[in-house]
Write a structure and sequence with these properties.
Helix content: 10-25%
Radius of gyration: 27 Å
CATH class of the largest domain: Alpha Beta
Number of helices: 14
CATH topology of the largest domain: Rossmann fold
Number of strands: 29
CATH superfamily of the largest domain: Peptidase S8/S53 domain
Largest sheet: 7 strands, parallel
Distance between the termini: 86 Å
Length: 638
C-alpha cells in the first residue's frame, strides 16, 4: 500500500476514535444534550425528470443574481446540491421528539440536539446515512483593540492619489497597492461581499419589507440597514440575518445596550476595514461594494461558534448571489489537527462546495495563537482555513514581517506527505494593528489578529472581481499568488516546510492587487482618467422621442454631482443632481425629456411655460463634480 493510502486509512481511524471517545461513548454525557448532524441517504428525487420538474416549478430556489453569478463562472444554473432536504425525513425526526436546529441542503443533513443514547437509535433509521457531532469553537477573545497613538509609524497619502486616506490607514492600503486601483476607478462597485461574523452595529430601516412566502424565504429580503458609524454611513448593506437567534436582522435590536454593543463590535470593525469612507481618516478598499451580514458567532466572555450556523449562512449567501464570503470564523474544538486535510470536516466541505460548485470566493482567516510562545503555530490551523478551495489569510506587521500572533501551516495532509505542495496561508496582510472604526459613532482604533488581515484581503478581492466578474475563485487565487510581494518570516523553523518560498509561514506573500487585476485578460480592465460626460444619445434628440440620455464616467467618489443645460446665449433651462456617486461608467446617466426645470439650482434661468418643452436648437450640457467640469452639446430637433 502506498504511503498516501496508508495515511488516509490512519486518518479515518483517528477521526472515528476521536469522535467516539469525545462524544458518543462518553458515559458522563448520557443525560446531556449534544448537537449532532444527521445525514440522509438521499433527497427523495428518484429520477432526473423529477429533478428537472422541481426546478421548473420552483424558480426562486435562489435569486436571479445567484443564477447570474453561476452563469458568469460557466457553472450550471442548478445542481443536485440545490435540491431541498426531504421534508418527510425531517417530519419523522420531529415526530420522535427531536427539534431540528439547522437544515443544510448542500450536506443533505440537519442539526439537532440529542442525548448520546439517541445517536444509535437515529443511526438505525432507514433513511439516515450517518450521525456526527456539530463542531463548536469556544475561545477567549483573541482580538485586541487599542486607541490611536501617535507613536505608531504612520505614512501619509502620496500626492498622486486621488483619495486622502489619512495618516493612520494609508499603510494598510499602500501595502496591498489598493490606492493604485482606487486611482483607476475601482472600489468594488457591483460586487457583493458576505461578512460572516458577530453582526454589525446598525439600525433597521423603518421601511423594511420582509417576504416570507417563498422558499428559501431569505432570498426575498428587501431592506436597507444603516450602520451607526460616520465612516460607514454610505455603505450599501443589502440584507442581514442572525443565524444564532434565527432573526431577520443582525444589528441593533435591543436598543444598543452594552451587551449588544459588545456582541456586534467585532463584526463592525471588520466591516470598517472593508467598507469605510471618511476622507482624511479611513478609506477602505471596497467602499463601493454591497454587503450582506451574517451573524454566526456569539460574543460573550468568549467567542462561541457552531459550524451549522456557518454552513447555513454559506448556503444563504449563495442564494442571495454573494460573490465573496469573508470569514474570520474557525472551528477546532471537535476537530484535531489530524483532520485538517482540506476536505475532512463538514465546514471545509461546505466551503469547497461554495467555491467549486457555485463560484463564490471564500476568504478565511488562518487563525490566531491563543498563547504566543507556547502554542505551536504549525498545528493550530482552523477549519475551513484548511480547505483546498479557500483563500486562507495569515498576518504580518507594518514591515511585512510575519506576525507572531498568526497561525501557520502546514495542513495535516502536507505534514504526513511532503510531496503535496499546498501552502496555508496562501497570502498575508496587515494583522498587527490595522486601523478601523470603533464601537462609537465617531472614533477609530486599531485591531490585532488575522481577522483584520482577512477583511482587508476580502475587500481587495472585490476590486479584482469588479474588473473581472467572470473570474473563478481559482483564477483569482492564481492571480494573487503569482503577483504577490515577498513577505518575511522572522522565525523559520528547521524543517523542509519552511526552507523555500513560498512557504507555510507567509504563503506566497503580500497581495499586490493592482498587479493581480493586470495579471490576465487586461482588455477587460478599464481606466477612468477623469470625470466627464460621454456622448449623449440620441443626438440629435427629437422632441417627439421620450428622453435623451446623458451618460458620464466618474473617476472618484462624488458626494454631489450636478448637471446643467444651457441655451447658447447662457440661459439655464435644466438642472439635476445625484448624490454619493461611486467611480464607474454610467451609460444611463441622466435622463431629460426636454422640459425646462431649474428647481434646486441656485442659478436663475429660463423656465418657460409649465409642461412646454424647449425650442429646437443647440444646447450646452455641463457636468460639475466639484473637482472637474465637462461639457458636451445636444442638438434638439422637432
Amino acid at each position: 500500500m502506498k504511503r498516501k493510502e496508508i495515511s488516509l486509512v490512519i486518518l479515518s481511524l483517528l477521526i472515528s476514535i476521536f469522535i467516539s471517545l469525545n462524544i458518543f461513548a462518553n458515559p458522563t454525557l448520557d443525560s446531556q444534550k449534544i448537537k449532532v448532524w444527521v445525514f440522509f441517504k438521499d433527497k427523495g428525487f428518484d429520477s432526473k425528470e423529477k429533478i428537472v420538474s422541481y426546478f421548473k416549478n420552483n424558480p426562486s430556489y435562489v435569486t436571479e443574481r445567484s443564477k447570474e453569478r453561476r452563469k458568469n463562472k460557466n457553472l450550471s444554473e442548478y445542481r443536485y446540491l440545490d435540491l431541498p432536504v426531504n421534508k418527510k425525513y425531517i417530519s419523522i425526526l420531529e415526530s420522535k421528539g427531536y427539534k431540528v436546529e439547522k437544515v443544510s441542503k448542500w450536506l443533505n443533513a440537519v442539526s439537532l440536539y440529542v442525548e448520546s443514547k439517541d445517536v444509535e437509535i437515529i443511526s438505525q433509521l432507514p433513511f439516515v446515512k450517518s450521525v456526527s457531532p456539530v463542531s463548536t469553537m469556544r475561545k477567549k477573545k483573541d482580538f485586541l483593540v487599542k486607541d490611536v497613538i501617535k507613536s505608531k509609524s504612520i505614512n501619509s497619502s502620496k500626492g498622486d492619489d486621488i483619495y486622502f486616506y489619512g495618516d493612520y490607514s494609508y499603510n494598510q492600503i499602500k501595502m496591498l497597492n489598493i490606492n493604485t486601483l482606487h486611482n483607476k476607478g475601482y472600489t468594488g462597485k457591483d460586487v457583493v461581499i458576505a461578512l460572516f461574523d458577530t453582526g454589525v452595529l446598525m439600525l433597521k430601516d423603518s421601511s423594511m419589507v420582509v417576504d416570507t412566502s417563498s422558499i428559501p424565504f431569505e432570498t426575498t429580503f428587501v431592506y436597507t440597514c444603516k450602520p451607526i458609524h460616520k465612516a460607514l454611513k454610505d455603505v450599501k448593506i443589502v440584507t442581514s440575518y442572525d443565524f444564532i437567534e434565527n432573526k431577520d436582522f443582525a444589528g441593533i435590536i435591543y436598543g444598543g445596550s452594552p451587551d449588544e454593543v459588545n456582541q456586534l463590535s467585532h463584526g463592525t470593525k471588520m466591516l470598517g476595514l472593508m467598507a469605510s469612507y471618511y476622507s482624511g481618516e479611513l478609506i477602505s478598499p471596497a467602499f463601493g461594494a454591497s454587503y450582506i451580514i451574517a451573524k454566526t458567532e456569539i460574543a460573550d466572555s468568549e467567542l462561541i461558534s457552531e459550524e451549522d450556523n456557518w454552513i447555513r449562512a454559506c448556503e444563504w449567501a449563495d442564494s442571495l448571489g454573494a460573490d465573496i464570503i469573508s470569514s474570520s470564523v474557525g472551528y477546532k474544538d471537535w476537530y484535531p489537527y489530524s483532520v485538517m486535510t482540506g476536505d475532512s470536516t463538514n465546514i471545509s466541505k461546505a466551503a469547497n462546495i461554495a467555491s467549486d460548485s457555485f463560484g463564490i470566493l471564500v476568504v478565511n482567516a488562518i487563525g490566531n495563537l491563543k498563547n504566543v510562545g507556547i502554542d505551536r503555530a504549525d498545528t493550530s490551523i482552523i477549519a475551513p482555513a484548511d480547505a483546498y478551495s479557500v483563500l486562507t489569510v495569515g498576518g504580518v506587521d507594518d514591515s511585512m514581517v510575519y506576525s507572531q500572533y498568526s497561525v501557520t501551516g502546514p495542513t495535516y495532509d502536507v505534514y504526513i506527505d511532503s510531496t503535496i505542495k499546498r501552502y496555508k496561508p496562501e497570502v498575508v496582510a496587515l494583522a498587527e494593528w490595522p486601523y478601523t472604526v470603533s464601537d462609537s459613532s465617531n472614533s477609530f482604533n486599531y485591531i490585532l489578529g488575522t481577522s483584520g488581515s482577512t477583511a482587508l484581503v476580502s475587500a481587495g478581492c472585490a476590486l479584482i472581481l469588479q474588473a473581472h466578474p467572470n473570474w473563478t475563485p481559482d483564477k483569482v487565487k492564481e492571480a494573487l499568488t503569482k503577483t504577490a510581494k515577498r513577505a518575511f518570516a522572522s522565525l523559520i523553523p528547521d524543517t523542509t516546510y519552511f526552507s523555500e518560498y513560498p512557504n507555510q509561514i507567509v504563503g506566497y506573500g503580500v497581495p499586490d492587487f493592482y498587479k493581480a487585476v493586470m495579471y490576465d485578460d487586461t482588455n477587460e480592465v478599464y481606466q477612468i482618467n477623469s470625470s466627464k460626460l460621454l456622448p449623449p444619445y440620441p443626438n440629435p434628440y427629437p422632441l417627439k422621442a421620450g428622453y435623451v440620455r446623458i451618460p458620464f464616467e466618474i473617476k472618484r467618489k462624488i458626494s454631489n454631482l450636478m448637471l446643467y443645460i444651457y441655451t447658447l446665449d447662457g440661459k439655464l433651462v435644466y438642472y439635476d443632481s445625484k448624490e454619493n456617486i461611486l467611480p464607474g461608467v454610467y451609460q444611463e446617466g441622466f435622463l431629460w425629456n426636454g422640459v425646462p426645470n431649474t428647481f434646486g439650482s441656485s442659478v436663475s434661468g429660463y423656465i418657460g411655460s409649465s409642461g412646454n418643452k424647449v425650442s429646437p436648437g443647440v444646447y450646452i450640457v455641463i457636468l460639475q463634480t466639484g473637482f472637474e467640469k465637462s461639457t458636451k452639446k445636444i442638438t434638439i430637433i422637432p
